[in-house]
Design goal:
The protein is α+β, with helices and mostly antiparallel strands. It has eleven helices and 37 strands. Strands 1, 3, 4, 6, 7, 8, 9, 10, 23, 24 and 26 form an eleven-stranded mixed sheet that branches. Strands 11-22-12-18-15-16 form a six-stranded antiparallel sheet, with no helix packed on it. The protein has a four-stranded antiparallel sheet with strand order 17-13-20-21, with no helix packed on it.
């Protein structure tokens, strides 16, 4: 979705990452664009459609809009219900569903008539979170084989289209699809593996409503009413109030509003190919900010370069088989290396990408029709926030790759002009992410519009974006869960949480503070505190250099184990070893565990990764061995140990399992302050 940012409508090419909507590479369901034009309210809400699954065992809410006073009748099998449209044109009713299975036809009549075909009755699960929940099956392990075998007509999915909103939204986009080899490429992989395992065991239709947007924090999925009492978000909520009062565009982030307010280049169309830039300063790229007089201070600068392309333009070399990956093996690609802090790239006046993830090399796919023979203009807006900012990569990493693989170097002389000298007292954006991160904007735009559909429960894979505030998450997540339960008004429905997998480089020394680890701890705290919750531990999965681990089957399977054990009453192991009590003895600490089904076991060559400390809080690696349902931890370097930690880093060696093959969650026995405790971004 490289063309997503700013005012453009999304294109399905992006990089999935910790921040979700970043430089190009892969598509993310739920990615968002500026608020579309208001649509006429439909006779039947768009969350209902052909091929859908309605919840069994409880009344199903159905709603839509019609003429005030219109009597609406809904029929499904032998069941009927009626409602009258109110002065606001909305009608809503509840109908008792027929027996699980189907297919059924749902007939809705009033001043209009409407029929929904091939409707099943089963269990509906809401799949929420950020990009790892939304990651399509096509980008995961063994994708080709899995998609080819994905013939599950009783598993249906609806992916809610991304839409940040500052006010309540009534209508969302999306459609219900049955899982087949033709549709499975774009289903949430986690949701798919979850549904497949559940359906295999309970033998009823499963519906998935996927409400996920890459890079989004939990507070974006929580209502203002629930966030305000926390007082952690007073500053962004005040900004949201200001934007509402101004009837501002509903970007869902802060930086685009900041550009609207201060960026002279945007206001005067400095990306336009016809712009006369002859008076602009010639500067080197990489570089350029020193020559513009802002070497060490925040600034926004625009850079322009003319290139001449051959006639005809090169075409991609035909491939005997479709190229794997998210975009063609040969294609026009703009590569700009790493940039601090945010860039927006244009080719011939058309936005082709933008990112604020500093460490992510920019690679923007240029769709057909943008490049042309002869003169072409590349324009790049760069917002620098640090003294060492702007273009960070080596010159050879900046180039335009044409469809036939020809690389045109872009490093060297560019035209540049300063747009914003952002040194104090010039204000800077509250945050730089250019995807939806503002409080409540996805609750309003993507969650509230689908309530109160009847559901069985929710599965939740999110936390990466909140990890710098990992300790705070133990407050946000329970508030969000309570908020969702109030919105859907179906009691304390099941809420199952994915504990974050391994990520980033392994540390060879014990880590005292680690944001991902502290976020995992908060997930565990929330799962233990919230009624009818469950934690799916995935610490044995993940990839050091890929935040979107491709192995999503264990994630879905462990969520399914939570559901099968807790919701469906199966006698199935759903948890790995869980610390139950601590026994301190001279020279060692004995850890007692629950959920040791089949006994404690070590996967791998050595039991790890345990660290131990005394009152001096100096952590060292420890020796550990299993004795029955306990682990004894010690180190000759700590003669008087008081505390133990297990798997306490972003990418640990985590080899403690139970006999059922489920991993122990990372834990600690101490309550010493961590890296993220007290951290607030505002």
């Amino acid at each position: 979705m490289g063309q997503r940012y700013g005012r453009s409508i999304c294109i399905l090419v992006i990089t999935l990452s910790i921040a979700g909507f970043r430089a190009v590479s892969q598509p993310t369901p739920g990615q968002t664009a500026q608020t579309p034009n208001a649509k006429a309210l439909p006779f039947v809400s768009t969350i209902f459609g052909d091929n859908m699954v309605l919840q069994r065992g409880k009344p199903d809410a159905i709603w839509g809009w019609s003429d005030p006073g219109d009597t609406i009748r809904v029929e499904m099998g032998e069941k009927t219900a009626t409602a009258v449209a109110g002065p606001d044109r909305r009608w809503q009713l509840k109908i008792d569903p027929p027996a699980a299975g189907g297919p059924y036809t749902l007939k809705i009549s009033g001043h209009q008539t409407f029929e929904l075909h091939n409707v099943l009755v089963g269990d509906v699960w809401l799949c929420g979170g950020q990009s790892n929940m939304g990651l399509p099956l096509r980008f995961t392990k063994n994708a080709d084989e899995e998609i080819k075998a994905a013939n599950y007509p009783e598993i249906r999915f609806f992916t809610v289209a991304g839409h940040p909103a500052y006010h309540h939204v009534d209508v969302i986009d999306g459609k219900w699809q049955a899982v087949s080899p033709e549709t499975a490429s774009w289903i949430s992989a986690v949701g798919y593996y979850f549904a497949r395992r559940v359906q295999k065991d309970v033998h009823i239709p499963i519906g998935l409503v996927v409400d996920a947007v890459g890079g989004t924090p939990a507070e974006s999925w929580t209502s203002e009413a629930s966030l305000r009492p926390l007082h952690d978000f007073d500053i962004p909520l005040a900004e949201l109030d200001r934007l509402k009062s101004e009837n501002a565009p509903e970007y869902g982030n802060y930086v685009m509003h900041w550009y609207d307010r201060y960026d002279t280049g945007q206001k005067n169309h400095w990306a336009a190919p016809e712009l006369d830039d002859s008076a602009w300063k010639s500067v080197p790229v990489p570089g350029g900010f020193a020559e513009l007089g802002v070497p060490d201070t925040p600034a926004v600068a625009w850079f322009r370069k003319e290139i001449v392309l051959p006639d005809p333009l090169p075409k991609a070399t035909p491939q005997p088989t479709p190229a794997p990956g998210p975009f063609p093996r040969s294609g026009n690609m703009l590569s700009l290396g790493e940039i601090e802090r945010m860039d927006t790239a244009y080719v011939n006046g058309i936005e082709v990408g933008g990112s604020s993830w500093v460490e992510n090399p920019r690679r923007y796919f240029i769709r057909d029709g943008i490049l042309k023979p002869g003169r072409n203009i590349i324009a790049i807006r760069v917002l620098k926030s640090k003294p060492v900012g702007g273009f960070l990569s080596k010159p050879e990493e900046l180039n335009l790759t044409l469809a036939d693989g020809t690389k045109i170097p872009l490093a060297g002389e560019w035209k540049a002009k300063l747009s914003v000298d952002a040194k104090p007292p010039q204000e800077l954006p509250i945050a730089y992410e250019n995807w939806p991160i503002m409080p409540a904007v996805l609750y309003e735009g993507m969650l509230s519009p689908i309530a109160p559909i009847s559901i069985t429960g929710a599965i939740w894979y999110q936390g990466e974006q909140n990890s710098p505030r990992g300790y705070q998450y133990r407050k946000i997540l329970p508030a969000m869960i309570a908020d969702w339960r109030a919105l859907f008004a179906q009691g304390d429905f099941p809420f199952y949480i994915v504990s974050l997998p391994a990520f980033t480089k392994h540390s060879d020394t014990p880590v005292n503070g680690d944001d991902w680890t502290e976020l995992r701890e908060s997930q565990a705290v929330a799962a233990a505190a919230v009624p009818n919750a469950c934690l799916a531990v995935t610490i044995d999965t993940g990839e050091a250099d890929n935040i979107h681990s491709k192995d999503k089957e264990p994630v879905g399977d462990r969520l399914a184990r939570c559901a099968l054990a807790k919701q469906y009453g199966e006698k199935i192991v759903y948890s790995g070893p869980t610390l139950e009590s601590v026994e301190r003895a001279p020279g060692a600490i004995r850890l007692h565990f629950a959920h040791t089904d089949g006994g404690l076991v070590t996967k791998g060559d050595k039991l790890g990764e345990f660290s131990i400390a005394g009152d001096d809080r100096n952590w060292v690696w420890a020796d550990a061995h299993i004795e029955g349902d306990t682990v004894v931890v010690s180190s000759p370097a700590v003669p008087h140990p008081t505390e133990v930690r297990y798997a306490w880093q972003s990418n640990p060696v985590a080899t403690l399992f139970n006999g059922a093959g489920l991993p122990a969650a990372p834990f600690r026995t101490d309550n010493w302050p961590g890296k993220t405790e007290g951290v607030r971004p505002y």
